[in-house]
Amino acid sequence: MNADANDRLSRRGFLAISAATLGGVMLAPGIRLIEIAAARAPEQAVSRRVRWGLLIDTNICTPGCDDCVKACATENGIKDTGRPRTDPQWIRKLELNDRRSGRTHSVPVMCQHCEHPPCVDVCPTGASFKRADGIVLVDKHICIGCRYCMMACPYKARSIVFEDVTDQNPDVPRGKGTAEGCTLCVHRVDRDRQPACVEACAKAGHNAMIFGDLNDPQSEIAQRVAKYASTQIRADLRLNPGVRYQGL
Amino acid sequence: MKRNGIGALAGHIARAIWPLALLLPILAFASGRVPKPVIDIDKPGKCVEDTATMRREHPDMLRHQRDLTVHEGIRTRQHSLKECVSCHASTKTGSVLGEKGFCQSCHDYASVKLDCFSCHASKPKGAAGAKP
After folding, report:
1. Among A25, A112, A184, B58, which is least packed by CB within 10 angstroms?
2. Domain range spanning residue A25?
3. pLDDT tens per residue, range A116-131
4. Do residues A18 and A64 both lie within one domain?
């Protein structure tokens, strides 16, 4: 009897201790008291706590440089068919001129990864969607190629693939009859790498683009956005794009 | 009267033949007379699941995985199409397509349309040669 009570007590004690220990780390599967600041495991879904963004410094970005555009094309397998009017375009360089002051800007424009993306609103099949971490994508399995998203996007960031695509990058499936646009190199981001354009810009020594988590106060991008003036293109539309520009 | 006679005869013949008709395909298949798909399998043996499961359920596995990957960013390797291709691509053509290719040979045989590779790469990364 005595031994039995002791045994029960010790078991209860053990359970209490283990519950207390576990509670500090994990309340339920996926819900933790203390967030662990570590890279996402491959089997873990993307988190709402992250908001990926880009900060582009137009004071540094030089006219005529298209390193980011080339890197994007190489990474995502976009080939020049010699028919520029119908070729898909993920980033384009815009040259802006202020006639009064004579000041020129060079601005790379890609999908702005809006918080409230119009392309998602208009998509009739649900193919155009926003991932939990703020990246706006096309699920090409569902896309029927209607091009409503191309019409709805104020940034002209979406393209349609008109021709058969061969020799794709295994990480970037692309095919005829589907809409597409900048994915922020989602296949790289999921593996804790930078988008190809940002990497190319840094590699060439320009460092005009920064990629990071806008929600993480420790990240370089969040600190720069908090410290310096930056603008969103067509901020009047209140779409809250994840891509911001400095010096515009 | 004569018609009836012919009809009856035909009936007799039909009755005599039908068990044979049932048996024939089985016999033929067992004796290897029915053409089967010719597949280049460079790495025989167990896949991520056993062969019977893979044959029956690979489309469901791929469909399930694709939704997880595209929408939730889950990039586990076990049921990913990219891993299928990198393991099953033929050493000769470097691809899962082609007449004896791992995917195409069977899909052609079963007359099932193979959509994946109008968008997805049919070769592992860095493989040389043109797409068939």
Report:
1. A25
2. 1-36
3. 999 999 999 999 999 9
4. no
